[in-house]
Amino acid sequence: MMSIINHYFILITLFLKYAFGETLLNVFAYSEYENNQAYTPFIQGFNEYSNKNNLNITLKLNLLTKKNSTISYNDFGSLIEVLLKKKTQKYDLYLYDNLYTPVYGQYLLDVKNLLPQEHINMFNPKLLNQTCYYNDELVGLPLTLTYSVFYSNQKLLNKYNKPVPKTWDEVIETGQYILEKEKQQNNTDLIIYNGLFDESQNGFSSIYEFIYSCRDSVNSSFPELTSETAVNALKKMKELKEKIASDDIFSLGEDYFVSKFYDGKAIFLKYWIFYKDLLDMSDYKMSILPGLVKGISGSVVAGFNFGIGRNIKKENINGAIEALRYLSSKEGQREFVRIGQIISGIEEFYDDEELCVDIDCDLMKILQPIPRPSSVKKNFEEYSGKYMKYIYNYLYGNDKPEDVLQRVDDLTKIYYISLSTKDSSVGLIIFIINLTLSILFLLSLFILYIKKYEPYFEFLSKPFWLILIIGIIMLLNTGTTKIGKVTNLSCHLYPTLLSFGFTFSIIPIFYKLIISFHDKNKVILWIEQRKYSFFSFFVIIDIILLSIFMIIPYEIQTVSRENEKNYEKCNMNNTFGILYVDFILFYKFFIIFLMLLLIFMEWSIDEIKYDLRFTVGCLYVDTLTIIFLLILHYISIKNYIYYSLIRVSIIILLSIMNYILLFIIRLLFPYFIKADENILEGKIFMNDTNMSSNCIQSIKSEETHKTNITNRSSSVLTKMVSYHYKRTSEAPDPFSEMPSYKSEKETIRTSLSSNKL
């Protein structure tokens, strides 16, 4: 059926457009009640204006109500978002709650440069900034507004000669006085104040504007939620409930307001600006909401904006702009303002003496509006629900005001470790540790210039030791990228420092392994003569790889958990980016693999024997650390401090282990050599009596072993094993690798003698 209707509608549109040159624009809107809305007369007014001026533009209102649909008000908000996301061209203009401007803004047309500037200037710039702008784009104009106000029973106030309260304390004092007097006259159904702190958006607005009404001065912004001002506001809110109302009265919604408004059984009420004709027939008079002190008030501003879909057909844009211009103009709104059908955002109306005969211009001028903070969270309904839940835990429960306000603040606050100790001292501690270790690592380079230690550091040249230490410091300071707010830059710096740190700390050793290889070919000799070119080659590769990597954007994901503090983390959701990171990791692991292969083949070389063993330990530590950090990325951690601290601690530990295994442990070489000598001496003395009888047999056995190896020399694996047992990097005699305790003992003793402290 809907398909038939749609085809029929398209045919009518085409007929009007091509037969008469008519532009038919579809307007999408929602109202709970079909007859109680201002959209229809607005649309009719424009169509009459269009016909009168031969504009050939017709607006068609597509109005969803409770009568013709099953969706709720919140469902309608989601429906508009779905339609806009789909880039549908079915609707051209949208009437939407200004609460959703941050949600719809990206899908609506920027009209800032499509409307005359003098037209835009008719509206209060603060109002437009609060309700109509999205990322500096004007995505709509206010069609109608509403404000929360304070209703006073003038009949009762006049009866007891009491003025309209200007502060919350005056509300308590006046309310209690009148209630007591009325009770003496058997008026027991009277209430003092309804509060309107229910579970709907009305409740959120009541909380929000109440805190705003307790700010320090008229020009002060909304108080910090964890400030003393906000705490005092909640205390005053609870004082009102306990002294002039009850849990039941405060928690009732708009139906309760309507009933009390009609029966007059309330001294004070709080609600939105009500219908003018009904207000004129009641005992109530509107005023601004009271504040903590005189002159300070607060009023949530709500309303509906008129916006144009960004995906509108090009041929319909001019017609839509004209419709938007007229419906938001003085001409288009004046009559509706006069009869009280809308509240306009055009300021000049409230200085018009003729209009002010029919509307309360004085009230409109002194309102102190504040918009709902709809931009703080993408899902504002969820946010406002938790906001009310926490505040009500104090208002209707026993939680402390400081605690509930902290929980509310945590809904939007992004926590991160920093040098400030306000939330945590972890960031400062990490910074001090990294700075101290960095200085210590650099100062330790002076050991290279102490003569008695020079033999222990012959494995690398002094410039290469400097490069290696700089690499370790780079690895160490990778953790500092976790200090401060998460940005796209910090997301890229983390793997960048890891990559450069790896290159600087490992490539000098890679160079040494290559030039220490048993068989010297042309490539090895060329590398040996150009060590800085060799190192620079890997640095240039890193620069190229990481320069491309920096272009790929990270997605900064907010991690939110119930009753936990929000924090942000870096996510690479770009498919190309993920593959690129995998490629870089493969490249680094391939270097580690080549180094381990060389170490295996050079394992028995006496002059670098200990260097190789500690290098293996370092490579294993590096490999396991990278794997663990990768796994950690996919583990959900609730606490923001633990999330950063675990990663930073691992990196600090990695840096310290690299520093110990590659550098500082060399100071202990004499002890390792001495231990080896003792072991060898024990073996020699234990076998001394058997040496003569077994020597010939041993030599024969080794000769047989060598013969077998030679016969299998064509095998790569066998050749690698052969290299593994070679104790010198020089080209050996085929039988020179035969074990000899005497020669090994002499070698160690010579090494020990030359390296004694």
From TrEMBL:
It is found in: Membrane. Residues 426-672 form the G-protein coupled receptors family 3 profile domain. Its main location: membrane. One of its GO terms (molecular function) is G protein-coupled receptor activity. It is a multi-pass membrane protein. Residues 730-757 are annotated as: Disordered. Residues 1-21 form the signal peptide. SUPFAM superfamilies: Periplasmic binding protein-like II (SSF53850). The chain crosses the membrane at residues 426-450, 462-480, 492-511, 532-556, 576-600, 612-635, 641-665. It comes from the Eukaryota. One of its GO terms (cellular component) is membrane. Keywords: Membrane, Signal, Transmembrane, Transmembrane helix. Pfam families: 7tm_3 (PF00003), SBP_bac_8 (PF13416). PANTHER family: ARABINOSE-BINDING PROTEIN-RELATED. This is Periplasmic binding protein-like II.
